[in-house]
Write a structure and sequence with these properties.
heterodimer, A: 114 residues, B: 7-stranded mixed beta sheet, 4-stranded antiparallel beta sheet, 11 strands, 51% strand
Chain lengths: 114, 118
């Protein structure tokens, strides 16, 4: 079965430090990859996506994600964390077959401490 | 502001009752998606409509139904409500295409409707 794994329920980072939120997937072919963020009591917001091309994708709010085909991973990164980055982050994958349905990870809670 | 509007924001009702959640997509978006988010189940895809027609169905219970109207707004109907139906229900929209559910485009989410069943 196709799946998306976010292995960490929660990630704690000190403000100013680099952050990484991990995502791996088990999907056939070359899927499209997405990251979304959900701030408290808000809907999800699109951060970035990988379709093809450069393995490093830049998105909103200074976030970037690195696609690694051999490891089937799409980790979200930011060089210097802000307290305002504290939120719930979702990885999603869209296979290039089966109607391109989105498969969602369970989400990772990111906590940035001052 | 994503441009997706959901009403009501909060709803409290009793078991056995029926409620209707409403969603207005972003201007120009033809696809509407409904998701359920609960603490223990994460984000669950319920159903998708494209230009008035059902396009994809996920883990939607038979007690739940949805439709998309000619003006492209959508309604999610939840009936015979149970305690376990308490959750945050999100609507999302995208431009979409006829041949793909999500395609390469991102989804734009509303703020959600928080349903509490007592």
């Amino acid at each position: 079965a196709q799946s998306v794994a976010q292995p960490e329920d929660q990630v704690n980072v000190a403000e100013g430090n680099p952050l990484t939120v991990k995502c791996t997937y088990s999907v056939s072919g070359n899927p499209y990859l997405f990251w979304y963020v959900q701030y408290p009591n808000r809907g999800l917001q699109f951060l970035l996506k990988y379709i093809t091309g450069d393995n490093l994708v830049k998105g909103s709010y200074g976030f970037e994600a690195e696609f690694n085909k051999s490891q089937t991973s799409f980790h979200l990164k930011k060089p210097s964390a802000l307290v305002s980055d504290s939120a719930l982050y979702f990885c999603a994958v869209s296979p290039r077959d089966s109607n391109y349905q989105l498969i969602w990870g369970a989400g990772t809670k990111l906590i940035i401490k001052p | 502001d994503s441009g997706v509007t959901q009403t009501p924001k909060h709803l409290i009702t009793a078991t056995g009752q029926r409620v209707t959640l409403r969603c207005s997509p972003r201007s120009g978006d033809l696809s509407v998606y409904w998701y359920q988010q609960s603490l223990d189940q994460g984000l669950q895809f319920l159903i998708q409509y494209y230009n008035g027609e059902e396009r994809a169905k996920g883990n939607i219970l038979e007690r739940f139904s949805a439709q998309q109207f000619p003006d492209l707004h959508s309604e999610l109907n939840l009936s015979s409500l149970e305690l376990g139906d308490s959750a945050l229900y999100f609507c999302a929209s995208s431009v979409g295409t006829g041949g793909r559910v999500a395609g390469t485009g991102e989804l734009f989410f509303g703020e959600g409707s928080r349903l509490t069943v007592l």
